[in-house]
Amino acid sequence: MITVFYSSDNRMFTQQFISVYSLAKSTNEPLRVFSLTTEVPEYRKSSKRLSTEQNALLDKVLKDKNPQSSWTAIDVSSFFREYFMHGPNAENKFYNMFVCVRLLAHKIDALGDKALWLDTDTIINKDIKELWDIDVSNYEVAGRRDLGRISKYFQTGVMLLNLKAIRESGDFEKAAKMVGEKKFYCYIDMGALNKIIPNKKKKMIPRRFNSYYGKDDCVIYHVCSTRAGHIPFTKKWWHRIKPDEFDLFLKKRPQYKPLYEEIFKIIEAHPSAFNTNVQETSHKS
After folding, report:
1. How far apart are CA 67 and CA 195, in angstroms?
2. What is the tens place of the pLDDT at every residue in 32-76?
3. Which of 48, 117, 154, 284 is close enough to 159 for a disulfide, judged by CB 3.0 to 4.6 Å?
4. In total, how many domains does the chain have?
5. How far apart are CA 174 and CA 15, in angstroms?
6. Residues 6+ apart with CB under 8 A from 212
7. Is residue 276 domain-resident?
8. In a domain? residue 188
9. Which CATH number belongs to the domain containing residue 13 in this structure?
10. In terms of Cα–Cα distance, which of 17, 91, 7 is closest to 57?
11. Containing domain of residue 159, as a range?
């Protein structure tokens, strides 16, 4: 059984769905997939938890591939209020603080002793089991080295976590408290994690497990590489996907056309689940 978790809300449902759909297609292993959700109207009124329909659709996608798989949403709004809402980074305009709830993974018993974190702007190309089977028994985190770094500074979009070791060390708890107390200007929780976790407890893994370029050998395509482009997943989660972005994405990455054709059929069958962030989607490519 492979355990995966995300953080998502209704405004990013399409991104979330595409990632989970590709995840289910990638492996025959049963998957326990969780979403750490927040709904804190006094902080941001527009952010809502995934709806009952959206959660049911994600669960169905997983079970259609493997009946043993499941999707579970866990409300961590109280943790967000406690750790992040009133800190010096709460009004950061360049980073959405809701993603910082991943620093509280050690508090979620349901995640067990080992879990894989995925950003929602990921597409899984190959069997995720290859990443899951990496031995992290002597480490807290396995991740790829971030671009331009010469030290063991890992990128947090894809992380294989030894939660047993993390609970024993208290390092995620320390990082969460740092985010609530120390001012950061960008990549807030990534900066805190890399500062807190000792290098000897970080395992660097090949870039194909968190690839920015989607080449043939990549296991996980992390679409954030084209942050300035007008294609899906490149904007922060408070933006909507615009109709032309699907066509532009497929023009740049034609290998994903079969996947997207499947996705479009599901969107057409469940329009009310997707109408929070897809409007008049064009897919005549």
Report:
1. 41
2. 999 999 999 998 888 889 999 999 999 999 999 999 999 999 999
3. 117
4. 1
5. 30
6. 147, 222, 224, 225
7. no
8. yes
9. 3.90.550.10
10. 17
11. 2-227
Q: Is residue 256 part of a domain?
A: no
Residue with tokens 């408070």: 238
pTM above 0.85, yes or no: yes
Backbone torsions φ then ψ of 29, nearest 5 degrees:
-70, 145
Q: 187-219, pLDDT tens digit by residue?
A: 899 999 999 999 999 999 999 999 987 777 899
The reply to whether 164 falls in a domain is yes
pLDDT at 54: 94
With tokens 């329009």, the residue in question is 271
For residue 189 the two structure tokens come to 């929780």
